[in-house]
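Cross-posted from the bioinformatics board.
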Amino acid sequence: MEPIRIDPKRALDEALRAQQKLAASFKTLREVEDVGYGATDKEEVYREDKVVVYRYKGKGKPTAKAPLLICYALVNRPYMVDLQDDRSLVKNLLALGEDVYIIDWGYPDGADRWLTLDDYINGYIRRCVDAVAKHAGVKKINLLGICQGGAFSLCFTSLHQDKLQNLITMVTPVDFHTKENMLSHWTRGMDVDLFVDTLGNVPADLMNWCYLTLKPVRLNQQKYVAMLDILDDKVELENFLRMEKWIFDSPDQAGEAFRQFIKDFYQGNKLVKGGLKIGGKDVSLKNITIPVLNIFAEQDHLVPPSASRPLGEHIGTKDYTQLAFKGGHIGIYVSGRAQREVPPAIHEWLAKRTK
Amino acid sequence: MAKGPDTTRAQDDWQKLSTQYWNAWSDATRKAFGANAGADESGKLPWHEGLEQWARMFDAGKAQNTQSETVERLLAGARSYFSLLQSLAEKGGAAKLDPQGWSDRVREAFNFPGADAALFDNPLARAMRELAGQGAKGFEQMMDSLQPAMREARALLDMPAFGYAREHQEHYQRMAKAWLDYQHETNRYNTLIARASRRAFEVFEDKLAERSEPGRQVDSVRGLYDLWVDAAEDAYAEVALSDEFREVYGALVNAQMRVRKHMQLEVEKVSNDLGVPTRTEIDSIGKRVHDLHRDAKDHAASHAALLAEVAALRAEVEQLKGAKPRAPGARKAPAKTVRASRKAIGKETP
């Protein structure tokens, strides 16, 4: 049997539809305003250098016993968790009664060239955690680390567990040397000292180029072919543009922290193999004995599930829960399924454990 | 958004263009798929040219940044799809071909008129080239602009350096060698991408063969395009996850950094001559400021901890003082309490 059986009429319709969409886009693309982001009101509660901690304002008073601080990655902007009204992890958590705070790392510049992982983890995160605890009037808080922010949160918990009640990691790489991990595979031949000594801070454009080359045809061609389908739909087009804005709204990376992260995590895989030191202090996942919820995405091309799943084998806690989400690295925040599944899972897990 | 006369005129122009292009497209498509045998030569117009026209209509300079960038990205991304549409329309989308025949047809479709001939039969390299953003293009453009200088430097490569300008000559020799090394590593990388492209067509044929089963046939041009993308990504992942790719990728990145480093040194030399502060100086100052900043934060934290400790001790002392209220005529009792307290503190102190 022939592998391809394209009905002439259907092909004609397909071609006509593409043309109609292009024609319609002339109107819609000119009508859409510069897309905004952030669905939820928030107030600043702490500021240090370029780092700001915000508290999100829900419609009602929080019912959770302890605040939840979100620690996002350095490589993208944190508003992905509150992208728009119908795609907001934050909004859904607030609706369930959580008291949600977030660390905004800002955009590092030349003045931040020498920031180390010690500065980020033992410095900024520690002081942000203290600030949130003080603001909420509690001794211990809950921490939610996302992606690279999850790896940072694991390090922080290993070193400062007395400040936390529970830890949640989302799409967090733990074992960096699994075979599907393309990013890690590529970094292992790099002379990262030469890289950082040459570039100083690592430009965001270079990082984005690297991410796009993980799936070059899908991310540079197919995505925009699929965009043809929504060119006549203003709302869908705005959603698309908002996502595009987030994807390419990337901060530069502080040189020294980047150097250490690539050497110790991507190349050395020390979170799993051991020997990791942050600010001269030993970091071990075995030190973590508070309850841990690990959420990962089954179709994640940036942090493959095989990189997240091993956390349970290496962590010290006896209260470890794992949640596999059907979706990708971005879908876990913004898909319809994510809105239905992820916030309730986090809330229920926390409610059983927070004192 | 308010619509002025320019916008209205542009929209009318687009409608005219759209109608013309539309008729050509419709005729060509009808002809190809047998719906209308009387179409004219307009089907030979590259269909992706319609996309280019569409993008030009936006007058990217006036559009908002996000939108104009999106238009640019859509333009780059959708060319291959439109070429596939046109190819199937021109050569017959309903032809009876085996998987290899279809694969050849898709390969030809991607070598569309106007495409960079250097990237023929290499759709993955094209996808890489279509990456937008200065991070992707900047260094390549910089390298192009350096070509003449590098050709000059290459002539000096094998000459012995001596005399007053010896160090300068050696610097240029090292820079030229780094540049040649970068060219070499770029070629190795491109060879692997070309290999991934070739492999993509093999994987595509395999996927097509799987679709020969009843109920799994591809029934749309978009479906065919999507299947091709799956094949291309599978093939790319095979190559990109190989040990050879890891070595070549690392060597390419390292080679590029060496070139950048030499260029920085060159800029530093010129800056020094002109009395302009250099990157090295700024880095040095930045490092000192950062260290001072850290120290200040540590001291502030220590200071706060000390103040808290002093406050706690004061409170404790006050509490101890208050614990034994003085009774008239019992003057020695407080002194005993204090001594007991000092002993207790002394025991805890190492």
